[in-house]
Structure formats: C-alpha cells, structure tokens
C-alpha cells in the first residue's frame, strides 16, 4: 500500500483530500462511490478531483450512472405517468429519447455521478438502464462489457469491479442504495422478470428493446447493511457529513450469506 504522505494535499480540495486519507482511502485503488451531496457542503467537482488526487494515476474512480427513467417498466416511469390519460401516457412513451452513453444524463444519481460522467477522459458502459461511468487507469477495461441482460450481474461492470477487488465509498447515503448488494442477488438465484427500455435502432432513431434479467429488489438492503460487521468498515466524517468505506467483495459476500438465510 502506498503511503498517504505521497498524496497531493494542496489546492482548493486540500481539506477533502485530508478527510479521504483519514477515512482510509489509498492511491492505486479502484473505487465505486455513491454520494448525495445535498446539505453536505461538498462541491461535486472538488470532490471528484480530491478523489482522483488520492487515487492517483494508478487508481480508477467509478460511479453508477443509472437511467431508470429510460424504461417503461421502472417505478420512475410509473410515477411519471400516474394519473395521466391513456393518450397522455402514450405521448410520454412516444417522446422518450433513445439512450446515448455519450450524452444521456443520469439525474437520479446525484451531482457527483454527473461530474464524473462528464469529466474529460471518462468512459461509460453502454447499458441503457444501469450504466456506470469511470475515469482513471482501468476505466476502459472496467466499462468494456455490459450486455443488455446483465444489469448488475457477473458480466456487468459490477462483476468487473468485484474481480478488481474494488472498494466502495458511501457519502451521505445508507446501505439502502448499496449497488454491490445487487450482485449477491444474481449469486443467490434471483427470479427473472421482463424489462423494456429505449435504445438506438439501426437507423439511429429510438427503438424499444425487451429482455429478461434478474428481478432486482433493494427493499431489504438497509437490513442487509445493518448486519454488515463493524470490523469490515471504516467510518468517519467527510466535509459536513458521514462517510463509510469498505471492500466490495466483503459487501457481496455478506449479502450472499444474508440473502441465503433471510430471503429463503
């Protein structure tokens, strides 16, 4: 492990860098970050650059860049059309743009995710609903494969992060949004369901695609996280909020055990 004294500590992000180092973050790591910056006093661009400064040129910063609003089988879509007439619903559906990994924003993922997605040199996986964005040494390799029927399974970037022994940093959010737990659903034989979303057709225009994949369910993730052993987490303050750092592999292994015992 590289000594933390080698991490740059000057510039506008100096205080954030120091907080990340105190939390346990080290150069060279592959890091998946979940963050909600509202009310924290943390600015997305400064946080992104502080994370990159600590990770250094050998590290990789990854964020979820999900776009569930791109689907008519998602809760977000159902909320959007709730109360509309059939004609109004049809109009909404007809106006939904095709997913474009280079330009489609991920508004529900927060300001840090958008900051990473739009950063110079950033790479985004191509899944129209559960893409990831990454910047750093291994960004292209980690984002390279993301088949339509593997939202968050072994063949997705999440599986690649597990194989890379990535770490997870959660800032001002709880385990109820811990994406790593979804990989455990695949490993414990989650049932499948149908999904539909808008992709680019052969002519470049919008086209609906339907496929089957695991029925993802995060309704018990807070309970999964509540029993995550304390010895496997580093917790502390970052800016004006709470942060938590842990191994993605530890989180998945714990969730597999929990789901095997509790969901069945």
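Sequence proposed for the structure above (264 residues):
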């Amino acid at each position: 492990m590289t000594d933390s004294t080698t991490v740059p500590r000057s510039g506008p992000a100096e205080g954030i860098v120091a907080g990340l180092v105190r939390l346990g973050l080290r150069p060279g790591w592959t890091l998946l970050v979940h963050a909600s910056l509202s009310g924290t006093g943390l600015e997305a661009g400064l946080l992104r650059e502080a994370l990159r400064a600590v990770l250094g040129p050998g590290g990789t910063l990854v964020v979820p860049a999900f776009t569930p609003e791109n689907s008519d089988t998602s809760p977000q879509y159902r909320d959007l059309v709730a109360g509309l007439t059939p004609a109004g619903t049809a109009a909404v559906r007809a106006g939904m743009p095709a997913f474009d990994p280079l330009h489609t924003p991920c508004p529900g993922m927060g300001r840090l995710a958008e900051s990473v997605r739009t950063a110079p040199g950033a790479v985004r996986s191509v899944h129209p609903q559960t893409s990831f964005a990454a910047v750093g040494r291994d960004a292209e390799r980690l984002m390279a494969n993301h088949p339509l029927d593997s939202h968050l399974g072994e063949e997705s970037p999440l599986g690649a992060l597990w194989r890379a022994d990535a770490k997870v940093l959660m800032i001002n959010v709880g385990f109820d949004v811990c994406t790593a737990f979804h990989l455990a659903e695949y490993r414990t034989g989650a049932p499948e369901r149908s999904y539909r979303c808008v992709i680019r057709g052969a002519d470049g225009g919008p086209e609906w695609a339907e496929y089957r994949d695991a029925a993802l369910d995060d309704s018990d993730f807070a309970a999964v996280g509540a029993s995550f052993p304390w010895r496997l987490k580093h917790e502390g303050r970052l800016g004006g909020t709470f942060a938590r750092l842990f191994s993605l592999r530890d989180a998945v292994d714990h969730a597999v055990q929990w789901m095997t015992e509790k969901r069945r």
